[in-house]
């Protein structure tokens, strides 16, 4: 089924976890490096992180040995990052931010009895937008306990209507029945293929009729992605593969199974690395959509739900 060569498949395989753990410094060391960059002093960075200055110095030296790079210039006037250290710090910031988003998301997935805010979100929003919003909420309202249920947009709407969620986030063309809403972001659906697929080298845009008649890798019925695509094309062919998560759709497309339709939020990394190639579409094919927060009709969100909503508005 795949049109990729064995070499291409090898190139898309991520490094083994053990290899990454050996090469990448621990998060504590990266946070220390960022604190030195921000404060200009190893001592002040140590105090901010609640460790002794000798321990901070030892951690920096250990990180320098680990990477084989000089990261910090030390002098009586303070500590500053070397040019190499500045570059490493820029990369470290992305790692630390990703770790914070990972922690916020996984913490919210726990079924917590003390939850004061119950959130339901579509898969795309839950994976790519919500963790950042939860980090901002925790900074504004420390101690707020949040629980999260991730599912397709139809399931999210059902949970909000039944009172199982205080606030929901959905994708799609319209506001679900019985709910009020606010647009919190905009999104574009892309048709993507593996580099070895014929459409990756195609110069002529794919017309709506051809796309509608082509078996595609799609999310399940009830997902906002599927709804937008079917509305834009007036219906779609029987899916080549039907999957219940965006990650699974991407994996199938990268493996060369066929064309897939996914959010541009979800494939930015794969497109930048050329593991997936966006397919040009005829100008008449409109796959742009709004991402919405939803809540029970006539009941404006209050408390933590209102706070989270304020953090998401476009």
Q: What do these coordinates show?
A:
Residues 1-13 have low confidence and may be disordered. With 314 residues, this protein is of the alpha/beta class. The strands form 3 sheets. Strands 3, 4, 5, 6, 9, 10 and 11 form a 7-stranded mixed β-sheet that branches. The protein has a two-stranded antiparallel sheet with strand order 1-2. Strands 7-8 form a two-stranded parallel ribbon. It contains 14 helices and 11 strands. The protein has 3 domains: 15-99, Winged helix-like DNA-binding domain superfamily/Winged helix DNA-binding domain (Arc Repressor Mutant, subunit A); 100-180 and 295-312, D-Maltodextrin-Binding Protein, domain 2 (3-Layer(aba) Sandwich), CATH 3.40.190; 185-290, D-Maltodextrin-Binding Protein, domain 2. Strand 7 (217-219), helix 11 (224-233) and strand 8 (241-243) form a beta-alpha-beta unit.
SSE order and pairing:
Layout lengths: L5 H6 L5 H7 L3 H13 L2 H8 L3 H15 L4 E4 L2 E4 L1 H27 L7 E6 H6 L1 H11 L5 E6 L1 H10 L4 E6 L6 E15 L14 H6 L3 E3 L4 H10 L7 E3 L2 H9 L5 E4 H9 L4 E2 L9 E9 L6 H10 L2
Parallel strand pairs: 3-4, 3-5, 7-8
Antiparallel strand pairs: 1-2, 5-11, 6-9, 6-10, 6-11
Helix pairs in contact: 3-4, 3-6, 4-5, 6-8, 8-14
């Amino acid at each position: 089924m795949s049109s990729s060569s064995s070499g291409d498949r090898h190139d898309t395989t991520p490094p083994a976890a053990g290899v990454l753990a050996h090469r990448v410094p621990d998060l504590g060391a990266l946070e220390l490096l960022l604190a030195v960059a921000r404060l200009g002093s190893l001592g002040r960075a140590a105090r901010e992180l609640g460790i002794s200055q000798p321990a901070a110095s030892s951690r920096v030296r250990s990180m320098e040995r680990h990477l084989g790079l000089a990261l910090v210039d030390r002098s009586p006037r303070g500590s500053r990052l070397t040019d190499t250290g500045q570059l490493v710090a820029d990369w470290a910031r992305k790692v630390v931010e990703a770790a914070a988003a990972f922690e916020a998301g996984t913490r919210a997935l726990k079924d917590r009895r003390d939850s004061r805010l119950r959130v339901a979100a579509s898969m795309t929003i839950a994976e790519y937008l919500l963790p950042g919003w939860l980090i901002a909420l925790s900074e504004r309202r420390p101690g707020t306990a949040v629980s999260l249920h991730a599912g397709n947009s139809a399931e999210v709407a059902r949970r909000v209507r039944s009172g199982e969620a205080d606030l929901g986030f959905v994708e799609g063309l319209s506001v679900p029945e019985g709910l009020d809403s606010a647009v919190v972001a905009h999104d574009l659906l892309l048709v993507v293929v593996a580099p070895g697929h014929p459409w990756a080298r195609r110069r002529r845009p794919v017309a709506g009729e051809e796309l509608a008649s082509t078996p595609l890798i799609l999310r399940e019925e009830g997902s906002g992605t599927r709804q937008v695509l079917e509305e834009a094309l007036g219906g779609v062919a029987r899916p080549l593969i039907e999957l219940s998560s965006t990650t699974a759709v991407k994996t199938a497309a990268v493996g060369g199974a066929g064309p897939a339709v996914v959010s541009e939020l979800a494939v930015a990394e794969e497109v930048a690395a050329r593991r997936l190639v966006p397919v040009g579409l005829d100008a008449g094919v409109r796959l742009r959509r709004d991402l919405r927060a939803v809540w029970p009709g006539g009941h404006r969100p209050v408390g933590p739900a209102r706070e989270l909503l304020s953090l998401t508005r476009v």
